Amino acid sequence: MDKKSVLVIDDDQDVLDLVSAILDAEGYEVEVVATEDEVLERLTGGAQFDLIVTDVWMPWMSGLQVAHFAHVAGHTTPILFMSGFADPSLEERVRIFGEDTKLLRKPFDADTLLGAVDDLVHPEQKRQPRKASSSRSASSRSGS
User: Fold this and answer.
1) Is the pLDDT of residue 143 over 70?
2) CATH number of the domain at 32-116, please?
């Protein structure tokens, strides 16, 4: 079985490291980017991803802008948005990008992240919860 590839976008290196480690441990091929230039390069450089995981609020580009740019560039990749903000309209705004999107609220633990990722990458399969929950969780220093 081929490894599924995931592009992870966030301005917080701690979140990038954590999400990357969790996904890598589950067998995903993970690429992380932390700048606008890297995002634009990956989305226009011909690389294909099975999933894009992006923070919603970043200083240089919002996750909604990332999703719009990905669609304009021809990607039909599912998108998992992450946010620590309690914006009630955010759920509705991410749905604009279709059925293959989800919003993951920070902080989250490894099981919650993996469940959301699996729902988007393997929608035909139901994930079995782990017996021992990881103590690692992604939170937000700035609420992003």
Assistant:
1) no
2) 3.40.50.2300
